[in-house]
Protein backbone atom coordinates (compact mmCIF):
# COMPACT_ATOMS: atom_id res chain seq x y z
CA UNK A 1 0.00 0.00 0.00
CA UNK A 2 1.49 3.39 -0.91
CA UNK A 3 1.89 5.84 1.94
CA UNK A 4 -0.04 9.11 2.02
CA UNK A 5 3.09 11.04 0.96
CA UNK A 6 3.52 8.62 -1.95
CA UNK A 7 -0.07 9.20 -3.01
CA UNK A 8 0.43 12.96 -2.79
CA UNK A 9 3.28 12.56 -5.27
CA UNK A 10 1.08 10.49 -7.56
CA UNK A 11 3.10 7.29 -7.09
CA UNK A 12 -0.06 5.21 -6.87
CA UNK A 13 -1.12 6.23 -10.38
CA UNK A 14 -0.62 4.17 -13.52
CA UNK A 15 2.08 5.31 -15.96
CA UNK A 16 0.75 5.45 -19.48
CA UNK A 17 2.76 4.07 -22.39
CA UNK A 18 2.98 7.58 -23.85
CA UNK A 19 4.44 9.02 -20.63
CA UNK A 20 6.98 6.22 -20.42
CA UNK A 21 8.07 6.60 -24.03
CA UNK A 22 8.27 10.38 -23.71
CA UNK A 23 10.45 10.09 -20.61
CA UNK A 24 12.80 7.58 -22.21
CA UNK A 25 13.01 9.59 -25.44
CA UNK A 26 14.03 12.74 -23.56
CA UNK A 27 16.86 10.88 -21.83
CA UNK A 28 18.04 9.17 -25.04
CA UNK A 29 17.84 12.39 -27.06
CA UNK A 30 19.83 14.25 -24.40
CA UNK A 31 22.61 11.67 -24.52
CA UNK A 32 22.74 11.73 -28.33
CA UNK A 33 22.80 15.52 -28.60
CA UNK A 34 25.50 15.84 -25.96
CA UNK A 35 28.00 13.94 -28.10
CA UNK A 36 27.56 16.40 -30.97
CA UNK A 37 28.01 19.42 -28.73
CA UNK A 38 31.45 18.23 -27.63
CA UNK A 39 32.89 18.86 -31.09
CA UNK A 40 31.64 22.44 -31.38
CA UNK A 41 34.27 25.21 -31.34
CA UNK A 42 34.20 27.79 -28.56
CA UNK A 43 36.06 29.26 -25.62
CA UNK A 44 36.12 25.85 -23.93
CA UNK A 45 36.07 22.18 -25.02
CA UNK A 46 32.33 22.07 -24.36
CA UNK A 47 30.44 24.73 -26.33
CA UNK A 48 26.86 23.50 -26.77
CA UNK A 49 25.65 27.04 -27.47
CA UNK A 50 27.36 26.88 -30.90
CA UNK A 51 25.09 24.07 -32.04
CA UNK A 52 22.37 25.48 -34.38
CA UNK A 53 19.73 23.41 -32.54
CA UNK A 54 20.66 24.83 -29.12
CA UNK A 55 17.56 26.57 -27.76
CA UNK A 56 16.86 26.03 -24.03
CA UNK A 57 13.39 27.71 -23.96
CA UNK A 58 12.05 24.84 -26.05
CA UNK A 59 13.32 22.14 -23.67
CA UNK A 60 10.83 20.43 -21.39
CA UNK A 61 11.07 18.63 -18.06
CA UNK A 62 12.34 20.01 -14.75
CA UNK A 63 13.92 23.26 -15.89
CA UNK A 64 14.94 24.83 -12.60
CA UNK A 65 18.42 23.65 -11.67
CA UNK A 66 18.84 21.00 -14.33
CA UNK A 67 21.48 18.24 -14.37
CA UNK A 68 24.84 19.78 -15.16
CA UNK A 69 24.10 23.02 -13.32
CA UNK A 70 24.65 22.02 -9.69
CA UNK A 71 27.14 19.16 -9.43
CA UNK A 72 30.30 21.28 -9.23
CA UNK A 73 28.69 23.59 -6.68
CA UNK A 74 27.86 20.58 -4.51
CA UNK A 75 31.52 19.52 -4.63
CA UNK A 76 32.52 22.76 -2.94
CA UNK A 77 30.59 21.74 0.15
CA UNK A 78 30.61 17.96 0.05
CA UNK A 79 33.76 17.02 -1.90
CA UNK A 80 35.73 15.53 -3.41
CA UNK A 81 38.02 18.53 -3.23
CA UNK A 82 38.45 20.63 -6.35
CA UNK A 83 42.02 21.18 -7.54
CA UNK A 84 41.84 24.89 -8.32
CA UNK A 85 45.53 25.01 -9.21
CA UNK A 86 44.84 22.81 -12.24
CA UNK A 87 42.64 25.47 -13.84
CA UNK A 88 43.89 26.59 -17.24
CA UNK A 89 44.05 30.29 -17.91
CA UNK A 90 41.85 31.52 -20.76
CA UNK A 91 44.12 34.48 -21.45
CA UNK A 92 41.15 36.83 -21.03
CA UNK A 93 40.99 39.91 -18.83
CA UNK A 94 37.78 41.80 -18.15
CA UNK A 95 36.86 45.05 -16.46
CA UNK A 96 34.06 43.22 -14.63
CA UNK A 97 33.17 39.59 -14.04
CA UNK A 98 29.61 38.84 -12.92
CA UNK A 99 28.82 35.47 -11.37
CA UNK A 100 25.15 34.79 -12.08
CA UNK A 101 23.19 35.51 -15.25
CA UNK A 102 19.79 36.17 -13.71
CA UNK A 103 18.12 39.57 -13.73
CA UNK A 104 20.36 40.77 -10.87
CA UNK A 105 23.57 39.76 -12.63
CA UNK A 106 22.49 41.07 -16.02
CA UNK A 107 21.37 44.34 -14.42
CA UNK A 108 24.75 44.64 -12.65
CA UNK A 109 26.48 44.31 -16.02
CA UNK A 110 24.08 46.85 -17.52
CA UNK A 111 24.67 49.43 -14.76
CA UNK A 112 28.45 48.92 -14.96
CA UNK A 113 28.58 49.53 -18.71
CA UNK A 114 26.35 52.57 -18.35
CA UNK A 115 28.99 54.13 -16.10
CA UNK A 116 32.15 52.66 -17.66
CA UNK A 117 31.11 53.07 -21.28
CA UNK A 118 30.22 50.72 -24.14
CA UNK A 119 33.83 49.58 -24.63
CA UNK A 120 34.01 48.09 -21.13
CA UNK A 121 34.75 44.38 -21.22
CA UNK A 122 32.33 42.30 -19.14
CA UNK A 123 31.99 38.55 -18.61
CA UNK A 124 28.81 37.06 -17.17
CA UNK A 125 29.10 33.47 -15.97
CA UNK A 126 26.08 31.27 -15.33
CA UNK A 127 25.87 27.62 -14.38
CA UNK A 128 22.62 27.00 -16.26
CA UNK A 129 22.09 26.41 -19.97
CA UNK A 130 20.03 29.59 -20.26
CA UNK A 131 20.23 33.11 -18.88
CA UNK A 132 17.53 34.72 -16.76
CA UNK A 133 17.84 32.80 -13.50
CA UNK A 134 14.38 32.65 -11.93
CA UNK A 135 12.96 34.43 -14.99
CA UNK A 136 12.59 31.32 -17.13
CA UNK A 137 10.89 31.16 -20.52
CA UNK A 138 9.00 28.13 -21.84
CA UNK A 139 8.10 27.56 -25.49
CA UNK A 140 5.88 24.78 -26.81
CA UNK A 141 4.77 23.72 -30.27
CA UNK A 142 1.12 22.73 -29.91
CA UNK A 143 -0.80 21.85 -33.05
CA UNK A 144 1.62 23.83 -35.18
CA UNK A 145 1.23 26.96 -33.03
CA UNK A 146 3.86 28.51 -30.80
CA UNK A 147 2.82 28.67 -27.15
CA UNK A 148 4.83 30.92 -24.86
CA UNK A 149 4.70 30.73 -21.08
CA UNK A 150 6.68 31.67 -18.02
CA UNK A 151 8.55 29.04 -16.10
CA UNK A 152 9.56 31.39 -13.30
CA UNK A 153 8.90 34.90 -12.06
CA UNK A 154 5.98 36.64 -13.70
CA UNK A 155 5.44 40.29 -12.90
CA UNK A 156 7.02 43.72 -12.84
CA UNK A 157 5.49 44.25 -9.43
CA UNK A 158 4.32 47.71 -8.40
CA UNK A 159 6.17 49.90 -10.92
CA UNK A 160 4.58 53.07 -9.55
CA UNK A 161 6.62 52.66 -6.36
CA UNK A 162 9.91 51.92 -8.14
CA UNK A 163 13.07 53.81 -7.21
CA UNK A 164 14.53 56.31 -9.70
CA UNK A 165 17.22 53.77 -10.58
CA UNK A 166 14.65 51.09 -11.37
CA UNK A 167 12.56 53.50 -13.41
CA UNK A 168 15.62 54.45 -15.42
CA UNK A 169 16.44 50.78 -15.99
CA UNK A 170 12.96 50.22 -17.45
CA UNK A 171 13.49 53.25 -19.68
CA UNK A 172 16.93 52.01 -20.74
CA UNK A 173 15.40 48.70 -21.78
CA UNK A 174 12.51 50.34 -23.62
CA UNK A 175 9.85 49.04 -21.23
CA UNK A 176 6.88 51.39 -21.26
CA UNK A 177 4.56 50.19 -18.49
CA UNK A 178 1.73 52.23 -20.01
CA UNK A 179 1.62 49.78 -22.92
CA UNK A 180 0.41 47.01 -20.62
CA UNK A 181 -2.84 48.89 -20.06
CA UNK A 182 -3.69 48.32 -23.74
CA UNK A 183 -2.80 44.62 -23.60
CA UNK A 184 -5.15 43.53 -20.83
CA UNK A 185 -8.93 43.54 -20.65
CA UNK A 186 -9.31 44.21 -16.95
CA UNK A 187 -13.09 43.99 -17.18
CA UNK A 188 -13.16 40.58 -18.86
CA UNK A 189 -14.51 38.47 -16.00
CA UNK A 190 -17.05 41.03 -14.93
CA UNK A 191 -18.26 41.43 -18.54
CA UNK A 192 -18.86 37.67 -18.66
CA UNK A 193 -20.87 37.77 -15.46
CA UNK A 194 -18.15 35.93 -13.55
CA UNK A 195 -17.22 36.50 -9.94
CA UNK A 196 -15.60 34.66 -7.08
CA UNK A 197 -16.65 31.66 -5.06
CA UNK A 198 -15.45 29.08 -2.57
CA UNK A 199 -15.36 25.34 -3.21
CA UNK A 200 -15.53 23.08 -0.17
CA UNK A 201 -14.15 19.62 -0.97
CA UNK A 202 -15.45 16.43 0.54
CA UNK A 203 -12.02 15.23 1.73
CA UNK A 204 -11.55 18.32 3.90
CA UNK A 205 -15.07 19.46 4.78
CA UNK A 206 -17.15 16.30 4.45
CA UNK A 207 -19.14 17.50 1.43
CA UNK A 208 -18.52 18.83 -2.07
CA UNK A 209 -20.16 22.24 -2.17
CA UNK A 210 -19.58 25.41 -4.17
CA UNK A 211 -20.76 28.75 -2.84
CA UNK A 212 -20.76 31.74 -5.15
CA UNK A 213 -20.19 35.24 -3.84
CA UNK A 214 -22.28 38.28 -4.83
CA UNK A 215 -21.66 39.36 -8.40
CA UNK A 216 -20.54 42.90 -7.54
CA UNK A 217 -17.90 41.85 -5.04
CA UNK A 218 -14.31 41.29 -6.18
CA UNK A 219 -12.86 39.24 -3.33
CA UNK A 220 -14.07 37.73 -0.06
CA UNK A 221 -12.49 40.58 1.95
CA UNK A 222 -14.98 42.97 0.32
CA UNK A 223 -18.02 40.91 1.25
CA UNK A 224 -18.83 43.04 4.28
CA UNK A 225 -19.30 46.02 1.98
CA UNK A 226 -21.42 44.05 -0.50
CA UNK A 227 -25.10 43.25 -0.62
CA UNK A 228 -24.65 40.13 1.48
CA UNK A 229 -22.99 39.66 4.83
CA UNK A 230 -20.52 36.98 5.82
CA UNK A 231 -23.12 35.11 7.92
CA UNK A 232 -25.40 35.03 4.85
CA UNK A 233 -22.61 33.69 2.67
CA UNK A 234 -21.49 31.05 5.17
CA UNK A 235 -24.99 29.84 6.05
CA UNK A 236 -24.73 26.90 3.61
CA UNK A 237 -21.05 26.21 4.15
CA UNK A 238 -20.18 22.74 5.52
CA UNK A 239 -18.59 24.29 8.61
CA UNK A 240 -19.27 24.20 12.31
CA UNK A 241 -21.21 27.06 13.86
CA UNK A 242 -18.06 28.16 15.69
CA UNK A 243 -16.11 28.30 12.41
CA UNK A 244 -18.83 30.35 10.69
CA UNK A 245 -18.96 32.78 13.57
CA UNK A 246 -15.22 33.32 13.76
CA UNK A 247 -14.69 33.57 9.99
CA UNK A 248 -17.30 36.33 9.86
CA UNK A 249 -15.74 38.02 12.89
CA UNK A 250 -12.24 37.97 11.42
CA UNK A 251 -13.47 39.59 8.21
CA UNK A 252 -15.64 42.31 9.74
CA UNK A 253 -14.54 43.25 13.26
CA UNK A 254 -11.92 45.88 14.03
CA UNK A 255 -10.22 44.51 17.13
CA UNK A 256 -6.68 45.19 18.28
CA UNK A 257 -5.50 41.70 19.17
CA UNK A 258 -2.08 43.04 20.26
CA UNK A 259 -2.95 45.85 22.69
CA UNK A 260 -0.11 47.61 24.44
CA UNK A 261 2.44 47.00 21.66
CA UNK A 262 3.92 49.71 19.49
CA UNK A 263 3.62 49.55 15.72
CA UNK A 264 7.18 48.25 15.41
CA UNK A 265 6.58 45.63 18.10
CA UNK A 266 3.40 44.47 16.37
CA UNK A 267 5.19 44.08 13.06
CA UNK A 268 8.04 42.18 14.71
CA UNK A 269 5.59 39.87 16.49
CA UNK A 270 3.63 39.16 13.31
CA UNK A 271 6.81 38.51 11.36
CA UNK A 272 7.78 35.64 13.69
CA UNK A 273 4.23 34.28 14.05
CA UNK A 274 2.57 32.07 11.44
CA UNK A 275 -0.82 33.11 10.14
CA UNK A 276 -2.26 29.92 11.64
CA UNK A 277 -0.98 30.85 15.11
CA UNK A 278 -2.20 34.41 14.66
CA UNK A 279 -5.73 33.21 13.90
CA UNK A 280 -5.99 30.60 16.63
CA UNK A 281 -3.75 31.94 19.43
CA UNK A 282 -3.70 35.72 19.03
CA UNK A 283 -7.13 36.36 17.45
CA UNK A 284 -8.68 33.49 19.42
CA UNK A 285 -10.43 31.85 16.48
CA UNK A 286 -11.79 28.32 16.83
CA UNK A 287 -9.51 25.63 15.30
CA UNK A 288 -12.36 24.76 12.91
CA UNK A 289 -11.51 27.90 10.91
CA UNK A 290 -8.10 26.50 9.93
CA UNK A 291 -9.26 24.30 7.00
CA UNK A 292 -11.08 27.30 5.51
CA UNK A 293 -7.83 29.31 5.37
CA UNK A 294 -5.16 26.59 5.19
CA UNK A 295 -4.78 26.40 1.40
CA UNK A 296 -5.38 30.10 0.83
CA UNK A 297 -1.64 30.80 0.73
CA UNK A 298 -0.79 27.96 -1.65
CA UNK A 299 -1.10 29.95 -4.87
CA UNK A 300 1.32 32.69 -3.80
CA UNK A 301 3.81 31.01 -1.46
CA UNK A 302 3.26 27.29 -2.23
CA UNK A 303 2.96 26.85 1.55
CA UNK A 304 0.09 26.54 4.00
CA UNK A 305 -0.80 29.16 6.60
CA UNK A 306 1.22 27.24 9.18
CA UNK A 307 4.41 28.22 7.31
CA UNK A 308 3.69 31.81 6.22
CA UNK A 309 4.32 34.75 8.58
CA UNK A 310 1.22 36.64 9.62
CA UNK A 311 2.86 39.91 8.56
CA UNK A 312 3.05 38.64 4.98
CA UNK A 313 -0.63 37.72 5.07
CA UNK A 314 -1.46 41.20 6.38
CA UNK A 315 0.46 42.68 3.45
CA UNK A 316 -1.70 40.66 1.04
CA UNK A 317 -4.96 41.82 2.63
CA UNK A 318 -5.89 38.69 4.57
CA UNK A 319 -8.54 39.06 7.31
CA UNK A 320 -7.99 39.64 11.02
CA UNK A 321 -5.78 42.73 10.94
CA UNK A 322 -8.28 45.59 10.59
CA UNK A 323 -8.01 46.76 14.18
CA UNK A 324 -4.24 46.49 14.64
CA UNK A 325 -3.47 49.94 13.23
CA UNK A 326 -0.87 48.63 10.81
CA UNK A 327 -1.91 50.98 8.03
CA UNK A 328 -2.89 50.12 4.49
CA UNK A 329 -1.79 46.55 3.73
CA UNK A 330 -0.58 47.18 0.19
CA UNK A 331 -0.40 49.67 -2.63
CA UNK A 332 -3.54 49.10 -4.68
CA UNK A 333 -2.65 51.77 -7.25
CA UNK A 334 -0.98 49.26 -9.55
CA UNK A 335 -3.20 46.66 -11.24
CA UNK A 336 -1.80 43.18 -11.65
CA UNK A 337 -1.14 43.55 -15.37
CA UNK A 338 2.55 44.32 -15.75
CA UNK A 339 3.91 41.12 -17.21
CA UNK A 340 4.98 39.79 -20.59
CA UNK A 341 3.63 36.53 -22.06
CA UNK A 342 6.78 34.83 -20.76
CA UNK A 343 6.81 36.78 -17.51
CA UNK A 344 10.08 38.41 -16.56
CA UNK A 345 11.97 36.33 -19.10
CA UNK A 346 11.36 39.18 -21.55
CA UNK A 347 12.97 41.57 -19.05
CA UNK A 348 16.02 39.29 -19.03
CA UNK A 349 15.96 39.18 -22.83
CA UNK A 350 15.86 42.96 -23.01
CA UNK A 351 18.83 43.13 -20.64
CA UNK A 352 20.74 40.70 -22.87
CA UNK A 353 19.80 42.79 -25.90
CA UNK A 354 21.29 45.85 -24.20
CA UNK A 355 24.51 43.92 -23.46
CA UNK A 356 24.84 41.78 -26.61
CA UNK A 357 22.53 43.29 -29.23
CA UNK A 358 23.88 40.87 -31.85
CA UNK A 359 22.26 37.98 -29.95
CA UNK A 360 18.71 39.32 -29.62
CA UNK A 361 17.19 40.77 -32.80
CA UNK A 362 14.68 43.60 -32.68
CA UNK A 363 14.36 46.99 -31.05
CA UNK A 364 11.19 47.14 -28.95
CA UNK A 365 9.52 45.61 -25.90
CA UNK A 366 6.93 44.09 -28.21
CA UNK A 367 9.24 42.39 -30.70
CA UNK A 368 11.42 40.83 -27.99
CA UNK A 369 8.54 38.49 -27.14
CA UNK A 370 8.85 36.60 -30.44
CA UNK A 371 12.56 37.16 -30.97
CA UNK A 372 14.65 34.01 -31.28
CA UNK A 373 17.85 34.45 -29.30
CA UNK A 374 21.05 33.53 -31.14
CA UNK A 375 22.82 31.73 -28.31
CA UNK A 376 25.97 31.30 -30.43
CA UNK A 377 26.59 35.08 -30.23
CA UNK A 378 26.35 35.30 -26.44
CA UNK A 379 30.01 34.33 -26.01
CA UNK A 380 31.45 35.84 -29.19
CA UNK A 381 35.22 36.57 -28.84
CA UNK A 382 34.84 39.72 -30.94
CA UNK A 383 32.28 41.36 -28.65
CA UNK A 384 33.03 43.34 -25.46
CA UNK A 385 30.35 41.61 -23.38
CA UNK A 386 30.25 37.85 -23.11
CA UNK A 387 27.55 35.75 -21.45
CA UNK A 388 29.09 32.33 -20.84
CA UNK A 389 26.48 29.71 -20.01
CA UNK A 390 27.02 26.17 -18.68
CA UNK A 391 29.86 27.61 -16.59
CA UNK A 392 29.83 27.13 -12.81
CA UNK A 393 32.05 29.49 -10.82
CA UNK A 394 33.83 27.55 -8.08
CA UNK A 395 36.36 30.04 -6.67
CA UNK A 396 36.52 33.84 -6.48
CA UNK A 397 39.59 35.42 -4.88
CA UNK A 398 41.96 38.36 -5.12
CA UNK A 399 44.71 37.68 -7.64
CA UNK A 400 48.18 37.20 -6.25
CA UNK A 401 47.74 34.87 -3.30
CA UNK A 402 44.43 36.18 -2.10
CA UNK A 403 45.77 39.51 -0.78
CA UNK A 404 42.85 41.91 -0.21
CA UNK A 405 45.04 44.68 -1.66
CA UNK A 406 45.23 42.92 -5.02
CA UNK A 407 44.19 45.02 -7.99
CA UNK A 408 42.53 42.13 -9.81
CA UNK A 409 40.14 39.34 -8.98
CA UNK A 410 40.60 35.80 -10.21
CA UNK A 411 37.63 33.56 -10.95
CA UNK A 412 37.86 29.81 -11.50
CA UNK A 413 34.91 28.17 -13.20
CA UNK A 414 34.04 24.69 -14.41
CA UNK A 415 32.81 24.15 -17.95
CA UNK A 416 32.60 20.88 -19.81
CA UNK A 417 34.26 19.02 -16.96
CA UNK A 418 37.36 21.23 -17.05
CA UNK A 419 38.49 24.12 -14.86
CA UNK A 420 39.23 27.52 -16.37
CA UNK A 421 40.77 30.65 -14.89
CA UNK A 422 39.92 34.23 -15.83
CA UNK A 423 40.84 37.63 -14.38
CA UNK A 424 38.94 40.87 -13.98
CA UNK A 425 39.21 44.31 -12.45
CA UNK A 426 36.17 43.66 -10.25
CA UNK A 427 33.62 40.95 -9.56
CA UNK A 428 29.94 40.98 -8.62
CA UNK A 429 28.48 37.87 -7.01
CA UNK A 430 24.86 37.78 -8.18
CA UNK A 431 24.44 34.05 -7.66
CA UNK A 432 22.71 31.85 -5.09
CA UNK A 433 23.59 33.43 -1.74
CA UNK A 434 24.07 30.13 0.11
CA UNK A 435 26.90 29.23 -2.27
CA UNK A 436 28.90 32.43 -1.71
CA UNK A 437 30.70 31.38 1.53
CA UNK A 438 32.08 28.33 -0.33
CA UNK A 439 32.74 30.24 -3.52
CA UNK A 440 34.56 33.10 -1.81
CA UNK A 441 36.14 31.74 1.39
CA UNK A 442 38.08 35.00 1.98
CA UNK A 443 34.89 36.73 3.10
CA UNK A 444 34.78 37.80 6.77
CA UNK A 445 33.00 35.24 8.94
CA UNK A 446 30.10 37.56 9.95
CA UNK A 447 29.39 38.22 6.28
CA UNK A 448 29.37 34.50 5.54
List keywords for this structure.
14% strand; 12 strands; alpha/beta; four-stranded parallel beta sheet; 448 residues; single chain
Give helix % range: 25-40%
What's the helix count? 16
Helices and strands, in N-to-C order?
Answer: HHHEEHEEEHHEHEHHHHHHHHEEEEEH
Global mean pLDDT: 87
Total number of beta strands: 12
Strand order of the largest sheet: 1-11-10-9
How would you classify the helix and strand content by structural class? Answer: alpha/beta
Account of the protein in words:
- With 448 residues, this protein is an alpha/beta fold.
- The chain has helices spanning 4-8, 17-37, 71-78, 103-116, 164-173, 188-191, 202-205, 230-234, 241-252, 263-271, 275-282, 290-294, 298-301, 310-315, 345-355, 436-439, and strands spanning 88-94, 96-99, 122-125, 137-142, 145-150, 197-200, 209-212, 385-388, 392-398, 409-415, 418-424, 427-429.
- The protein has a four-stranded mixed beta sheet. It has a four-stranded parallel beta sheet with strand order 8-3-2-12, covered by helices on one side.
- Strand 10 (409-415) and strand 11 form a beta hairpin.
- The protein is globular.
- The relative contact order is 0.16.
- Residues 4-11 and 13-45 have low confidence and may be disordered.
Amino acid sequence: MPSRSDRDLGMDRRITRRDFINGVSVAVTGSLVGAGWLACPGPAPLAPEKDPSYYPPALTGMRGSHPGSFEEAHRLREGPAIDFASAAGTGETFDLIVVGGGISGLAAAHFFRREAGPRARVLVLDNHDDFGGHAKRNEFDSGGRLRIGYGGTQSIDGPSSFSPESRRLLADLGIDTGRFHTAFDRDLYRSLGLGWGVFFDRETFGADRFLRGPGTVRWPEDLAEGRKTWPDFLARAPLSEAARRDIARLHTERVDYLPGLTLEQKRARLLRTSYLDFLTEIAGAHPDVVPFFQARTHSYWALGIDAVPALQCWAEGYPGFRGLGLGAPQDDDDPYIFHFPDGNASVARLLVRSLVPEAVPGSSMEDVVLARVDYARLDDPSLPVKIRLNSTAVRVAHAGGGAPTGREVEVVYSRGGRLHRVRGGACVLACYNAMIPYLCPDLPEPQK
